[in-house]
Amino acid sequence: MTGTIDSIWRYPVKSMRGEEIDEVFVAFAGLMGDRVYAVSSTSSPKEFPWHTAREQEDFVLYQARYKNRSGTLTPGNMKEAMGNPANLNPTYPHPDAFAVEVETPDGSVVDIQDSAFLEGLKDQSEGELSLHYTQRNMVDCRPVTLFSLQTVNQLREETGTDIQKLQFRSNFYVDWDDKGGFYEDELVDKKVKIGNTVELMIVERDPRCKFITIHPETAETDPKLLRHVTKAHEGFAGVYAAVLKEGPVNSGDAVTVLD
Amino acid sequence: MNFYPVRIIDVINETSHARSFKLRPGDEHQHLFDYKPGQFLTFRIPWHGVHHERCYSLSSSPSCDTELKVTVKRVKDGKVSNWFNDIPKPGDTIDVAPPSGRFVLRDNNQPLNLFSGGSGITPVISLIKQVLHETELSPRLLYANSASDQIIFKRELDDLNAQFPRRLYCHHHLDEVNGLISTDVIESFIADYLDRDYFVCGPGAFMELTEDVLIKTGVSHKNILIERFTSPDDSVANREAIVPVAAANDVAEFRATLDGKEHKVPYRQGETLLECMLANGLDPVHSCKDAHCGSCMVIRKTGKNTLRKSTVLSKRDKEKGYILLCQAIPQSDDVWVDCDA
Lengths: 259, 341
Prior knowledge:
The complex is a heterodimer of chains A (259) and B (341).
Chain A: E1 3-10, E2 19-21, E3 23-27, E4 30-31, E5 37-41, E6 63-66, H1 78-83, E7 100-103, E8 109-111, H2 115-121, E9 129-133, E10 144-148, H3 149-159, E11 172-176, E12 191-194, E13 198-207, H4 224-233, E14 236-245, E15 247-250, E16 254-257
Parallel strand pairs in A: 10-11
Antiparallel strand pairs in A: 1-2, 1-11, 1-16, 3-4, 3-15, 5-9, 6-7, 7-8, 10-14, 12-13, 12-16, 13-14
Chain B: E1 4-15, E2 18-25, E3 40-47, E4 50-57, E5 68-73, H1 79-86, E6 93-100, E7 112-117, H2 121-134, E8 140-145, H3 154-163, E9 169-174, H4 175-178, H5 183-190, E10 197-201, H6 204-217, E11 224-227, H7 239-242, E12 253-258, E13 261-266, H8 273-279, E14 297-302, E15 305-307, H9 315-320, E16 322-324, E17 328-330, E18 336-338
Parallel strand pairs in B: 7-8, 7-10, 8-9, 10-11, 12-18
Antiparallel strand pairs in B: 1-2, 1-6, 2-5, 3-4, 3-6, 12-13, 14-16, 14-18, 15-17
């Protein structure tokens, strides 16, 4: 064993506060229920049309949650499909199962499909906002992100600041056995197995932007962390992964490097 | 970004300082060059052994023009703009990336008021042609130029006026006759037409003044579309024509605090603060150089600057005084940035 899944996080609405979950189905497109909603703005660049905490820092204080959380963690026929010799692709729940409500920083709760949701954001963007939905994950670049607790600790020591792991908005936070910070960088181009089934290919280091400077609890920003990551770690922290074998992952699962 | 070979079909001398180029992609790439009026093309041009990328707005419209057309105004000391005005000829092939840009008509059938200055007319005339050919709307254009012989597309505008009687209102403002454009001129043009979409493209000072007057007059931000003459990923009309304009011409140096030390950095016309710092042996933290990552966010303590792009900066960042070194052009001689704050 090389490490353990410390925690699993998904973000029902891209850029909003995420939720920690104990188990999840990891599909080729990423974690089930991860970034299935997103808000776009006509004032954002064409190549990255999303309205995010980069434009509105307190977006990270909006708590998105599924109304039927248990129904969005694993497909109903996961065991049957994966038990088939053909290793069939499990069937996702009906789109309605992914209904989301959002608790805004002032404590009010609104259904994300309610026009009041976008109406409440309109003053935060110079462009026109739209809501996007897909069952298959609106991630920035790659389906899955992985970050280690050792990397968080190293960055805390290097910067002398109380960095929060959630600033890096990873899906999997890993606790390595006998490994130091940024060990995950060494796994690029290697396969990693999580639990009994899921296999990931670590494809590249994760290039970081202003987002990591936003404190997840206060939405205050401190550019020093990004400057440090850029200077000391070439702008990278954590890694991106592609999914080679789908399946369930549970908190506490073993993480094994395959080659 | 992928570039494709595109053949120059025709070269048109628009004024003594501007040429238009009609372009035709190869048949196999034709579908990649479908465009919306107001968008731009990115060109990769060889210049003294180095490739330079520049963006130029399309002045053609798919509603009435069979060929793609861009217009390039010559700029003093501009590398690529002068190359365009001196070198290419019909039959030549150049590398071009497909159309891009968001300075386009919105799907709301809203009446239009358009402001353009100098070569800022290029995307604007594209929009005008589309509106005249495809809608019943009657666009209003305020078009500012230094002198009558520098009016790009004068004949084409006159022809449109003749072709669509009483549909196109075009007010020409000439600096040599009327002086530099002023708040009064812009207010007079806006008049009571508040509930319209406003398109603005021209030199930096022209756009800033126009936007300022529009906002103060009561036009909503959401109804103002501005084409800034900036970098390839922004919507651009003619970057080289604009960057050296305005107060930056008077800036000889700026101050930068870096790693606890204060430096006086010579300013090189048309370059960003980051480019000047790097050229002077300073190495502030930076990464993408494209306004995307935010690594070069620093506090501007004094002075004024414009940003070619500000993608990653939030409204709150700007209120706090953050700028991006990789995009900042000084607009006063007292710019002081703190790279440590």
